[in-house]
Design a protein that fits this description.
The chain is mostly helical and about 190 residues long. It has helices at about 1-15, 15-25, 30-45, 55-70, 75-80, 80-95, 105-110, 120-150, 150-185. α1 packs across α3 (about 30-45), α2 (about 15-25) runs antiparallel to α9 and α4 (about 55-70) runs antiparallel to α6 (about 80-95). Keywords: Membrane, Transmembrane, Transmembrane helix.
Length: about 190
């Protein structure tokens, strides 16, 4: 039951831009903000104790942004949530570049049954760097959609286009990884 609830909340969070868009057409900012606050509180309650501090922080910021939107009766504050998510992910990925192993290196090591070869560690560092660039650009575009002031464009980019771009980034990485692996298997 709890895993079903987690999945449901995750889908709702992913659909956040559409919830805001639809909510604005039928609810006041105060009621929409209250619904969003409740969604984020529920998410915070179902996050595991060992969940990443990043996801907890992002969730708390979602609560704060919706709360501020209620107080000031202005939707713009709630529109900043996708910007904050991208900036947070940028910071996490960027910070990991200065650690012993980058975030993607740690994920690859965790998923691999064998130790990663040196070229793979170096490759995953560059993948982490590529995600940093992606999140910086995504945060910039998300910010632009807020400044532009078109809720339709904000919803289109943050609720659809950005997810397509994430998918394309992941697909590109998989294809490049296969090419890199084949190259090093052939030349070592």
């Amino acid at each position: 039951m709890k895993s079903l609830l987690k999945f449901f909340i995750l889908i709702i969070i992913i659909l956040y831009p559409f919830i805001v868009y639809i909510g604005l057409n039928s609810l006041s900012i105060k009621y929409l903000g209250l619904i969003v606050v409740l969604i984020f509180i529920l998410r915070l309650l179902i996050l595991k104790k060992d969940s990443s501090i990043t996801w907890k922080l992002i969730t708390i910021v979602g609560i704060l942004l919706a709360g501020i939107a209620i107080i000031v009766d202005n939707i713009t504050v709630m529109l900043l949530y996708p910007v904050f998510v991208s900036i947070s992910l940028f910071c996490v990925f960027c910070y990991s570049l200065f650690q012993d192993k980058s975030l993607i290196s740690k994920l690859a090591i965790r998923m691999s049954k064998e130790p990663l070869p040196d070229y793979a560690i170096k490759y995953t560092w560059y993948v982490t760097l590529a995600w940093c660039v992606f999140f910086a650009i995504n945060a910039s575009i998300s910010t632009y959609t807020v400044i532009l002031g078109s809720i339709q464009f904000w919803t289109l980019y943050n609720g659809f286009i950005s997810y397509i771009l994430i998918g394309l980034m992941m697909l590109s990485e998989i294809i490049i990884r296969i090419v890199v692996r084949r190259y090093f298997e052939k030349h070592t």
